[in-house]
Design a protein that fits this description.
2,3-Dihydroxybiphenyl 1,2-Dioxygenase, domain 1, 2 domains, alpha/beta, nine-stranded mixed β-sheet, globular, three-stranded antiparallel β-sheet
């Protein structure tokens, strides 16, 4: 309950018990909290804009020899597709039963992307690209050309998923897109009013060119509020960024995961 209480306070979500989990919803965001180890992703869900996208995705996964799993949530319709990535993160794709597009008074911040750490950044990025059909937008490489971070998209926004090279595989953070840059100020004021300290930012990422701020939830998960994430034009080349602090924060301190 303490994790649900944090997200009620920090993100304005209203939680209801559902089985052994709590489901929280607010304007354009939904979060399921269940039993498990800290800093572990139970599953991530992507709502498809068009139900006709399900069949080709199903065929892609089968051609890759991946097994389909039972969906871990009833928030999506029965035709939802569930698959596990090489690190064991479960991914659900489908149509939501109940929309979280609220007209309420909650402060706007759409649940926009997730980021994981992995012992095999390149292998995980390859799975999302080759098996699921995501598109690589930007890469971060070290001086030897080794991949340190990969940003992938499944639409016009710069990324809906990213992976960092690390010495363990785990959830890194989940991000909420507020919209225009001035809303970062409003979110920072809100966090201050709730006595939730900002642990990184405000700053500006290199990849994605977005403004950001981070807080920690009570389990130590990173929670990002972002604004004005880059929208990628068709045909844009993949950019390579150096593995350096300035790549993560053009304005100041960068927190290098690896």
């Amino acid at each position: 309950m303490r994790l649900a209480a944090f997200y009620e306070k920090a993100m304005g979500m209203r939680f209801e018990p559902r089985g052994d989990c709590f489901v929280g919803q607010a304007r354009e965001r939904c979060l399921v909290i269940g039993p498990g180890r800290n800093r572990t992703l139970g599953f991530a869900a992507y709502e498809l804009e068009d139900p006709l996208q399900l069949e080709p995705l199903h065929r892609r996964i089968e051609r890759a020899g991946c097994n389909l799993l039972s969906s871990p949530t009833d928030l999506f319709h029965d035709d939802a597709i569930c698959v596990s990535d090489p690190d064991g993160n479960r991914l659900v794709f489908g149509r939501a039963r109940v929309s979280v597009l609220s007209t309420g008074a909650e402060r706007p911040a759409r649940l926009q992307h997730k980021v994981v750490a992995s012992r095999d950044c390149a292998g995980l990025a390859n799975f999302y690209q080759k098996v699921l059909g995501f598109t690589v937008t930007d890469k971060v490489v070290d001086g030897d050309g080794k991949l340190r971070t990969c940003f992938l998209r499944c639409g016009a926004e710069h990324h809906c998923f990213a992976v960092f090279q690390a010495n363990e595989s785990r959830l890194d953070h989940h991000c909420y897109e507020a919209g225009e840059w001035s809303l970062i100020r409003d979110w920072a004021d809100h966090m201050a009013a709730q006595d939730i300290p900002i642990v990184w930012g405000p700053g500006r990422h290199g990849p994605g060119n977005n403004l950001f701020m981070f807080v920690h939830d009570v389990d130590g998960n990173w929670v990002e509020i972002s604004a004005e994430l880059e929208r990628v034009a068709p045909g844009r080349p993949v950019y390579e960024w150096p593995h350096a602090e300035k790549t993560l924060n053009l304005w100041g301190q960068g927190l290098l995961r690896s």
